[in-house]
Amino acid sequence: MTAEHELTIPRAILPSKNIEDMSLLEGITARLLDEEIFIRDAKGVESPLPSQLKEAVQQTAMLLSQGKSVIIESADQTLSTEQAAEILGVSRQTLIRMLDRGLIPYSRPSKHRKIKLTDLLEYQRSTSSQKNAALAQMVSAGESDGLYDIPEPLPEEAAQAIASIRKEQSDVVGVS
User: Fold this and answer.
1) Which of 65, 59, 53, 73 is nearest to 12 (CA)?
2) Which GO MF terms does the UniProt record name (predicted)?
3) Which tens digits make up the pLDDT trace of 142-162?
4) What string of DSSP letters covers the chain?
5) What's the pLDDT score for residue 130?
6) What angle do CA 18, 13, 43 make, to 5 degrees?
7) How far apart are CA 153 and CA 171, in angstroms?
8) Ordered structural domains, the chain, with CATH
């Protein structure tokens, strides 16, 4: 990144004093709300703008077109254990056990634990990568053992197998 493009946080972006710039910005802002935004890299390849960045561009353009300044700054968001557990899809108690085992860094500024969003997302990415690698290894082992070459049973065969299992279970319980 060149010195002129270095980002200083926080950074204030002031609206233009040029009337032509303001009217151009108003027109662009109206289109930004209805259309998908694409970016083009140095090689000319176009990609859609990710939704978070699109929302930031839309909000910035709207505020600037209204003559307002915009301040950009990073936010090291911290989460409660309830919020973090919800993001991971686990119970709060499970998350507490994970924190106590040192799987996810946290702080305790008061009696409550606080988790940085960046730390939580990094844990989520690493476990997802591990799960995907394990799954790929299992699929590979299954393919090499020929487990995926087993033909599926016909519906009649499946129905007979289910009926047989149910009969065995009812015989064990003594229900007829």
Assistant:
1) 73
2) DNA binding
3) 888 877 777 777 888 888 888
4) --GGG---SSEEEPPPS-HHHHHHHHHHHHHHHHS--EEE-TT--EEEPPHHHHHHHHHHHHHHHTT--EEE-----EE-HHHHHHHHTS-HHHHHHHHHTTSS--B-SSSS-BEEHHHHHHHHHHHHHHHHHHHHHHHHHHHHTTGGGSPPPPHHHHHHHHHHHHHHHHHHHT--
5) 85
6) 90
7) 25
8) 8-72 (no CATH), 78-144 (1.10.10)
CA 130/CA 115 separation, integer angstroms: 22
Per-residue confidence (pLDDT) for residue 175, from 0 to 100: 52
Band of residue 8 on the pLDDT scale cut at 50, 70, 90:
low
Give 29-76 pLDDT, tens digit per residue: 777 777 788 889 999 999 988 888 888 888 888 888 888 888 877 667
Per-residue tokens: 59: 């909000």
Sequence-separated (6 or more) residues with CB below 8 Å from residue 96 = 81, 113
Nearest of 94, 99, 102, 127 to residue 113 by alpha carbon: 99
Q: What is the pLDDT of residue 139?
A: 86
- For residue 1, pLDDT beyond 70: no
